[in-house]
Amino acid sequence: MKKNSFMLSFLIVLGCDERNPVEVHKAYITLQGQDKVAVVDINAGEVLHYVDVDFTNTGDMPHFVVIDETHNYWYCTLIASGYVLKFDLQTDELVDSVHIGNMPALMALDEEREYLYISRFMPMMGMSTSSQLVHKIDAQNMTIIGTVNVGADSPHGIALSSDGETLWVASNQASHFFKIETDRFGDTSYQPQNFRIGTDVPSSYEINDGFYNALELELSHDDSELYVSCSNSMEVRVFDTESGDSLNTIMTGMMPWHIQLSKDDSELFVSNRMGSSVTVVNLISGNINTLTDDSMSILHGCALSANDDLLLVTSPGSGNAYVFDIENKTLLQTFGLSDVSDTDPMPTGAAIVQ
Questions:
Q1: Any idea of the CA torsion for 62, 68, 73, 77, to the nearest 10 degrees?
Q2: Given this model, what pLDDT does residue 30 score?
Q3: CA dihedral defined by 292, 296, 299, 303, rounded to 10 degrees?
Q4: Is residue 12's pLDDT more than 50?
Q5: What is the DSSP-derived secondary structure letter of residue 163?
Q6: Would you say 98 and 137 are in contact if contact means Cβ atoms under 8 Å apart?
Q7: How far apart are CA 314 and CA 155, in angstroms?
Q8: Are 103 and 130 in contact (CB under 8 A)?
Q9: Residue 20: pLDDT above 90?
Q10: What pLDDT does residue 164 have?
Q11: 121: pLDDT confidence band, cut at 50, 70 and 90?
């Protein structure tokens, strides 16, 4: 009788394990070197499959990815061929595309209204002239419905207010950022309000001083503060969104790149490209921690999970992705992203399904 009871208990436990496997936590990582997007499980630390984005057969270079969970789509920019692609979030099949021109870089998504905002970066290998354009795309039918010329070269960092009415964009070459009213896209006479990143740079945004080299922007969740990663000065600067005044300067590792804010705005995460580390700043206490691993080399993207317990980091230098436990500040997963081709994967942008 005891033996039968033991076997019954064993089968019940086994049955529970089969019904409740470790949940797959899906994320998307652009592989700029292999013209693919890796669909990964950050819980298991493995690649689930690859999505081919070799759209023109000439080297497209997928750079950045955003996810629309409201309508079940994801989007990526192809910086070499100038396309923005739209995929089904469930099947990962290509749905539509739009060509916007040279070097589409980062994206901001208005899920409620289904608009995409795309910044246009500097040209590849010095070819042609630098873009000064930011585009507004109707994501339902993937058409350009408006463009704003900010007047400064290489707009890159981009962030959208929670009400969808204000878009913030920073020039990578001129040390200025711009406040764009989103209902003014398509108005050729419109010049958005601009602010200097520092008082030590030219007042004209037409001068490429290259002092700060702003890379990415993040807004606090109440839209009151704008965070700007300054890759050349090794800092993140914080600005008041009403006045444009500087509020704080946060020192980071070498060449801060992509940034993320926790959903309660208590922590800032900064991937340091040449520092091969992640700076974690407690914005309440001011304490700073560093996340790193010996295999890290040249970092790029970072993304937080829904409850801010996991941080995904991409490393073009190593070809790896890294998953950190935020509470304990420990490394949980390291996994390679290559599709086993002869070219390096060069992982860049990252987005986690929330």
A1: -20
A2: 99
A3: -60
A4: no
A5: T
A6: yes
A7: 22
A8: no
A9: no
A10: 99
A11: confident
pLDDT digits (tens, 9 = 90+) for 57-83: 889 999 999 999 999 999 999 999 999
The answer to pTM > 0.90 is yes
Rounded to 5, what percent of the chain is helix, strand, coil? 5, 45, 45
Evaluated on CA atoms 259, 247, 110, 182, the torsion sign reads negative
Angstrom distances, CA of residue 233 to CA of 211, 255, 299, 316: 7, 7, 17, 22
349, 35 Cβ separation under 8 angstroms: no
Residue with tokens 């080399």: 297
Q: Looking at the DSSP assignment, which residues form a beta bridge with residue 78?
A: 62, 83
- Name all domains of the chain by residue range, CATH numbers in brackets: 26-352 (2.130.10.10)
Kindly state the tokens that stand for 33: 């070197």
Structure tokens at 74: 């994801």
The token pair that represents 48 in the structure block: 């689930």
Q: In what order do the strands lie in the sheet with 133-138?
A: 104-110, 115-120, 133-138, 143-149
Residue 129 pLDDT: 61
Tokens read off for 261: 């804010």
